[in-house]
Amino acid sequence: MMSLRTGRRARQAPDTSTPPRSHAYRQMRHPFEPQRVFSDDAIANMHQMALRALSELGMKILLPEARKLFGGAGALVDDSSQMVRIGPELVAAALATAPSSIRLRAPNPEREQWFEPGAMLFSAGAGCPNTIDAVRGRQAGCLQTFEETLKLVQSFDAIHILGPSAEPQDVPPHLRHYAMMQAQLSISDKPTFIYARGKKQISQSLEMIALGHGLSDDELRNGSWSYSIINTNSPRQIDVPMAEGIIEMARAGQMTIITPFCLAGAMAPITVAGALVLQHAEALAAITLSQLTAPGAPVTYGGFASNVDMKSGSPAFGTPSHMKLTIGSGQLARHIGLPWRSAAGSASNTSDAQGAGENHMGLWAALQANATLTVHSAGWLEGGLSFGYEKFINDMEAVQQLAEMAMPTPEDQASLGWDALADVDPGGHFFATQHTMDRYRDAFYAPVVADLSNHGAWVEAGSQTSTERAVDVWQGILRDFAPPPSAAGMADRLKAFVDEGTKAGGAPPTEG
Amino acid sequence: MMSLRTGRRARQAPDTSTPPRSHAYRQMRHPFEPQRVFSDDAIANMHQMALRALSELGMKILLPEARKLFGGAGALVDDSSQMVRIGPELVAAALATAPSSIRLRAPNPEREQWFEPGAMLFSAGAGCPNTIDAVRGRQAGCLQTFEETLKLVQSFDAIHILGPSAEPQDVPPHLRHYAMMQAQLSISDKPTFIYARGKKQISQSLEMIALGHGLSDDELRNGSWSYSIINTNSPRQIDVPMAEGIIEMARAGQMTIITPFCLAGAMAPITVAGALVLQHAEALAAITLSQLTAPGAPVTYGGFASNVDMKSGSPAFGTPSHMKLTIGSGQLARHIGLPWRSAAGSASNTSDAQGAGENHMGLWAALQANATLTVHSAGWLEGGLSFGYEKFINDMEAVQQLAEMAMPTPEDQASLGWDALADVDPGGHFFATQHTMDRYRDAFYAPVVADLSNHGAWVEAGSQTSTERAVDVWQGILRDFAPPPSAAGMADRLKAFVDEGTKAGGAPPTEG
């Protein structure tokens, strides 16, 4: 017990060269074993019932080209009703060619991801027509707020891919994809998002990625440089732009994330099991279309299932049903062996305790479910009708804490800390032990917006809620924002293409 | 496919006899497999190092009677330094007699609990010297607020046992145990809490339980009708009242919950592993004292370990370190095979997004860790310096949602819902299918304070945060509160005892 005698005197100066804890949560792996809400038998039954639904009831597929692909492979197609009945052998063949691991490329190689089971990615609130912040209130999404939200997203490593955070409604629909791609490429070096709003928008967006990063056609197809979200029209329908999205992205070797939005009790059966059967059937149909288009095309399973609120009729998020649906989705994804996306998010109208709670429930359920990607992880208010700036900052605290928790926990002898134990007398403290001095700079997660000061200090500082404090945080991020090296000269590289495309009438989104 | 033809017409009227979803979350079991942050080898190493700490470094035990118990069993006792060195064989013998399952009795048999691995109990924020509510602000705890918080606790089935929610500081310390026990017995029918503030307070509290419920001495010892929390004075010290609590409760056959409060970087080593070694050593020492007093006495493992905030020096809660410490504690509890207590809670000064987030992290970590009991699950602000009324309501939403999630998920054929799937055309909805009509009343969790209305309706209703809405909720609960049947005539049954005890000078708390 040398340390008892000499410990306090022989102490060295702390190692000031250690940097404070980094928030570089880039390539993350799930820390937990996946959990179950259903027995394995029930999952197998749900898979079988989904296959039966596809083969006996069928899917309504609005795009003739997609029906032709199904028909050519042996599905029973009725063009008058647009119904396609898909046999289990077609689904099995698709699951056999769909890759279980997808290389998701990024302008910054440090942000590249393996999109595969076990990986843990997060993306921010997406698809929001409005924004809410404490300075400007609630307003329609515009290019400025789209760019601002991209800057916020770019500034947190724990958000791994971009998304349509706030819809730039001040840009006309036929030119919007130019603006959205230009903004992504000029502000961020993370994997990019492309809306499935017609073939031409997709192909032009891909051209912009190639131009922006100087990629040859082969390089653009070496892994996936972008992704698109494919929402089915539950129940049992795939509309024209979504089918075009599946086909065009598959042909270009780019990732689609299949996402039925199955609201139990509304567009899906009211039971957790029933809503999942429908989700599974729809996802399998879309995955099959992708693989019929191009075997081996990067496509992922997904779901965003929750329940309707029986009082208001609105979608609810972060509910017990949402959590069970998420964990069940993870079981179904593992059953077919594909990576998959989940979603968190909040129905709250503001960044309050309710909103925080709803998002935590979704995030934690996604951890239980080992979701490859959790969409709407930060900033999603009103069930997606608004992107909240203060909400984003508060949710990022949660996402970063989960990312930090996913980091390995040292368990070597030095970490067990015998010397520290022996160094401190009963009733004493560890503040000044060598064990503490060696580690204190890097030991703990440093909060973004949480305030741990005592009541007196907190009152003196204005009794601010974390939502009020978040205003300074996002304003500081926007004020200090510097684009990544990959964005240098981006506007010049894209200008001619965008100018010509604009002159030629842009690309109006596909209807129906 | 009869349903396709006849489904819409043949529909029956909904079954209005089904009651809406009940919130009777009484005897809960953990829904998830326990998770790990450490390898099994590391856990075994930590257990060994804790044993080594007890045997080589020892514990400072301030109560002579406790040292005598240790000494009598073969521990090395030095009365001048009050140090007790405890050999591994003593610990092993204690772990062999400590019960792994404890029957926790309640005046209402429906609230009885088996306190054992796999069970999932929650208790409210405890030990708070102050209360915070929107009407009265922050004030010192008093008998009125203690009684109010008991009424709130009694009103939620998902809070399974009572605790010292708000400290009644307006009652003199030597009489406070009378008031606290009278309040518990008169307001609630859940298992009761006894402070470890000296032998006389404990024995008198037990007498009041026996008087209040008409229990013979044998009946009082048939299972545990109460429990006490035993906090060690980390590092490596057990003070007089705590040692008296262990001994007195063990002799009376009542449950003690051993709870070292190991704040990593302050009263414990700064590493997760090191803090857990210290916690484990202290808990094993206290468990050993309990079993030396009365082999087979109900005693549970526990820990409440988090990290100090390096900026303010304050305890932090709901942090990544807190979560890892919780999950690691669960591993250690399983290693020794005992039920155990964890804790959630919040360091926030108010019921905001930060406070909600911190508590969610603690609650979810406790689920990952399969904690038998999670203390401070609702209402704990400022790291326990205040019990927040609005915080309690918002946290109860989370606790109830987790309880609801822990309920089994139907996976029978009817739940899979083939008929519903076949009943609804592509692009249609399930609102009016028989499958929905049969289930809608009971399908989903009904929120306590969450508001799922849309933005317009929310603004019209005053743009209230969930914390603002919670005021109405707790006021309504207090207004409508009715004591349980077991409380009828309670004051009469206790009066003589309390009057005599008061006249005789009460029972001043033990010092030191």
Automatic annotation (TrEMBL), chains A, B:
Q: Methyltransferase: present as a keyword of the record? A: yes
Q: Name one GO molecular function term.
A: methyltransferase activity
Query: From start to end residue, where is composition biased (Basic residues)?
Result: 1-11
What's the protein here called? Answer: Methyltransferase
Query: What's the Enzyme Commission number for this chain?
Result: 2.1.1.-
Q: Which InterPro entries match?
A: MttB-like_sf, MTTB_MeTrfase
GO annotation terms (biological process)? methanogenesis; methylation
Q: Where is the signal peptide?
A: none
Q: Which domain of life is it from?
A: Bacteria
What Pfam families does this protein's entry cite? MTTB
The record's family statement is: Belongs to the trimethylamine methyltransferase family.
Q: Which UniProt keywords apply?
A: Methyltransferase, Transferase
Q: Give the start-end ranges of region Disordered.
A: 1-30
Taxonomic lineage is: Bacteria, Pseudomonadati, Pseudomonadota, Alphaproteobacteria, Rhodobacterales
Q: Organism source for this protein?
A: Sulfitobacter mediterraneus
